[in-house]
Amino acid sequence: MAYTVVAHYRCAPADSATVWDALLRARASTRAEPANLMYEVHAVVGEPGGFLLYERYVDQAGFEAHKAAEHFQEVIVGVVWPLLVERTVTFAETLA
């Protein structure tokens, strides 16, 4: 059963370019993870500094491995999260 993560991030418009670049770096590394099925980064239309991440993993353990990965800690925890003014995350499982 696939495990899906939908994250909404919002940063100050002045930090948008830094967050954008970091999210694209995270995308490249995440897509190489064995449990990752999809990792898409979107800019929210009409919301400067707004981003939406759509992620799918083979299971929840795959997502937990993603969070423990060095690139996640370095790029997301170290660069992106400190610049956010808002972050919400929804977790879902595919219905069988």
Largest sheet: 4 strands, antiparallel
Quickly count the helices.
3
> How many domains make up the coordinates?
1
Rg over CA atoms, rounded to whole Å, is 13 Å
Report the uncertain regions. none
**Helical residues, percent:** 40-55%
Silhouette: globular
Mean pLDDT: 97
Report on this structure.
There is one protein chain. The protein is of the alpha+beta class. 41% of the residues lie in helices and 36% in strands. It has three helices and four strands; from the N terminus they run βαββααβ. It has a four-stranded antiparallel β-sheet with strand order 2-3-1-4. Strand 2 and strand 3 form a beta hairpin. Helix 1 packs antiparallel against helix 3. The chain starts with a strand and ends with a strand. The relative contact order is 0.32.
Task: State the main characteristics.
alpha+beta, 3 helices, globular, Alpha-Beta Plaits, four-stranded antiparallel β-sheet, 36% strand, 96 residues
SSE inventory with pairings:
Layout lengths: L2 E9 L4 H16 L4 E8 L6 E8 L2 H9 L1 H14 E10 L3
Antiparallel strand pairs: 1-3, 1-4, 2-3
Helix pairs in contact: 1-3
Quick overview of this protein structure:
The chain has 96 residues and is of the alpha+beta class. The protein is built from three helices and four strands.
